[in-house]
Design brief:
alpha/beta, Rossmann fold, eight-stranded mixed sheet, six-stranded parallel sheet
Length: 643
């Protein structure tokens, strides 16, 4: 049972931000939810998938974000309420479709929930989704706390249906993954019937065909929808002000920065000097509301993550209103009061506000800072690393060794997933390029056509099984069709491991736990003309031989390295081997291998005993993959199969 459906209306419950968003969708009567796994958004669909059977929901992990938006849009076209959550990069993936959908309009309420990652806490960029709301010309809402995460999500469906437009509800990591108290509302008893009407006049949004054409009419209609959204925004209860009637300064903020601003005002005891305008309707800004608060004082400080989106929009409105309200000073990121990159926190905001108010503020006493620095220097260096027994470590060990033995300066085009760590020492620094999901194979496809310009280096790409279906297939098709010379190493660990083992089309289980047909990666690759070999990455010798053979082949080759993730629910706590270092055989520093096991291979399950001068197995974290037994040049690591 889930608290999301069993909690009592009127009572307060502790929810993660993503759970609050899910509850808001349930209170709105959502029928369809589709997305692609991506931190910090994944828990929204995971929460809804657990209650799908009780609420007549359809929930799916789509092959990628663009497809998830198309699935959700189909539900909207059929009159149902639909939601589509994703991380910030997902909006980029779906932007082609979204540009059309913004013009064609929607029917049932459709809410896009991009969860941005300021500071790139679980990403390799801190891209902004807010820009897309302005690009697409659709309304943007930003919850400022956990209660609002629920309430704004619910309201977004109503707004979407009123406007016949999708609505963005933006979250960020610190809201999605933190927890707070949320008061529940009623869950509606809905049993909607889907039906797609398409026989009406072409310009009839509710009964005609759905298309972005004719663009001149549809674009004008879109602007009329935005104007209507602004009218609703003027009186939105989610825009709030706290502070004196005539403040010295007003902080303008939204999203998780609301927490930082409130804490900063409290720490400085500046509540009688500073006002706090928390905006939830951040695009388009409601001009009458903005003019009301711009008229209250002359100085404003905009606190937001990551780019100065609200700051710039506020400055545009202030300039237009200047003949009526005078010249205003609007500060924030553009003048350096706040950093232009990275995540904010209460200390950063408090220090900036203190400077604006002429106050002194130190986050910690000098002796505390000095002492903490001393303690930090004593802590052991903990580099990012693959988990104990991770199949990716074994894969990149072989890839790195084969490329060195091949001696033609071959290289790997990397990709997004756990195996992104292959750019670091834990992956033997094997990957030399790293961009978007699926781009490893796309970039490799380009490199593989450069022989006519004298390039003779072997080109490899790496790709996970989930990424294969999400975005690498078009790149692989391109490589085959254009006869590029590449080897794709497909790291198949049977799930979307990086974000929590969500399903994908290569598995037999769907998002709601139902049995579904699995699509064979091997069959797909063979069907388009690629040469395919399959190996277990834990079998070092077989994998090495297979990779050597493929590097000698022209055209597109695929090496599928199939080994389930160590942390997967199916494998967790199950050991294949009992592993031990035979002390009498371990020669330690005198081996001549340079402590290959603990200094180079560096599985966390292997440790170096300085006192004994020997390698040892950490039985607590060793998962018994047995790979280390294959790399010791003196055969000092013994592995015995567990019965």
């Amino acid at each position: 049972m889930s608290i999301l459906t069993n909690g009592e209306p009127g009572k307060r419950y502790l929810l993660m931000g993503n759970e609050a968003i899910a509850r808001g969708a349930l209170e709105a009567g959502v029928s369809v939810c589709a997305g692609y796994p991506g931190t910090p958004s994944s828990e929204i669909i995971e929460s809804l998938s657990k209650v799908a059977g009780n609420r007549n929901l359809y929930v799916e992990w789509s092959t990628n974000e663009k497809v998830s938006m198309e699935v959700a849009a189909a539900a909207s076209f059929a009159g149902l309420r639909a939601m589509c959550p994703m991380k910030q990069n997902g909006v980029n993936v779906g932007s082609d479709f979204l540009l059309h959908l913004a013009l064609s309009g929607t029917r049932g309420g459709m809410v896009i929930v991009p969860c941005d990652d300021p500071g790139a806490l679980s990403s390799i960029n801190e891209g902004e989704s807010r820009q897309f709301a302005r690009l697409l010309e659709v309304p943007l809402l930003e919850p400022g706390d956990f209660q609002e995460a629920k309430g704004i999500t619910r309201w977004a469906f109503e707004l979407s249906e009123e406007l016949h437009s999708m609505v963005f509800v933006r979250s960020v990591t610190r809201l999605s993954h933190a927890s707070g108290n949320v008061e529940f509302g009623e869950l509606p008893q809905v049993n909607p019937k889907a039906g797609f009407k398409h026989d009406g006049f072409i310009l009839d949004e509710m009964e005609g065909i759905i298309t972005s054409a004719p663009v001149d009419y549809k674009h004008g209609l879109q602007h009329a929808k935005l104007k209507k959204a602004v009218e609703r925004f003027e009186n939105s209860p989610f825009n709030t002000y706290q502070g004196p009637e005539h403040p010295e300064l007003i902080l303008v903020t939204s999203s998780a920065c609301n927490f930082y601003c409130r804490e900063a005002i409290g720490l400085l005891d500046a509540g009688d000097r500073v006002g706090l305008l928390k905006l939830a309707t951040t695009w388009p800004l409601p001009p009458k509301l903005i003019e009301k608060y711009l008229s209250m004082t002359d100085r404003f400080f905009v606190v937001e993550e990551v780019i100065p989106f609200t700051e710039e929009n506020l400055k545009i409105l202030a300039q237009e209103m200047a003949p009526r309200i005078g010249i205003k000073t609007i500060m924030g990121k553009r003048d350096g009061k706040l950093p232009m990159v990275g995540e904010l926190n209460p200390d950063i905001v408090t220090q900036a506000l203190a400077g604006l108010l002429g106050l002194e503020y130190k986050p910690q006493p000098d002796d505390y800072v000095q002492r903490s620095r001393e303690i930090v220097t004593r802590a052991p260096n903990r580099e990012l690393t693959f988990c104990p027994g991770c199949p990716h470590r074994a894969s990149f060990w072989t890839i790195n060794n084969v490329l060195k033995m091949d001696n033609r300066q071959g290289f790997v085009c990397g990709d997004i997933g756990c195996y992104t760590l292959s750019t670091l020492p834990t992956g033997f620094s094997a990957s030399k390029t790293l961009h978007a999901m699926g781009s490893g194979t796309g970039v490799a496809s380009g490199f593989g056509k450069l022989k006519q310009f004298g390039m003779d280096q072997p080109v490899l790409s790496v790709c996970g099984d989930s990424t294969f279906f999400a975005s690498a297939l078009p790149a692989l098709f391109n490589a085959v069709h254009n006869q590029s010379d590449i080897t794709m190493v497909l790291l198949d660990n049977s799930g979307t491991a990086m974000t929590g083992f969500q399903t994908h089309p290569g598995l037999k289980t769907g998002a709601m736990g139902q049995e579904v047909p699995a699509i064979s990666i091997e069959a797909v690759c063979r069907s388009i003309g690629a040469k395919v070999k399959i190996s277990d990455p834990f079998d070092i010798e077989s994998t090495r031989n297979a990779l050597f053979e493929l590097l000698e082949e022209n055209g597109v080759n695929v090496l599928i390295l199939k080994q389930i993730c160590t942390l997967s629910p199916e494998k967790k706590a199950k050991k294949k081997f009992e592993v031990r270092v035979m002390a009498e055989k371990c020669l330690g520093e005198s081996c001549g291998c340079g402590r290959l096991c603990t200094r180079i291979f560096r599985c966390p399950g292997l440790i170096w005993n300085k006192d004994k001068g020997k390698a040892e197995i950490n039985d607590v974290i060793c998962i018994g993959c047995g790979v280390c037994g294959s790399i010791c040049p003196n055969a000092a690591i013994e592995k015995k199969e567990v019965a």
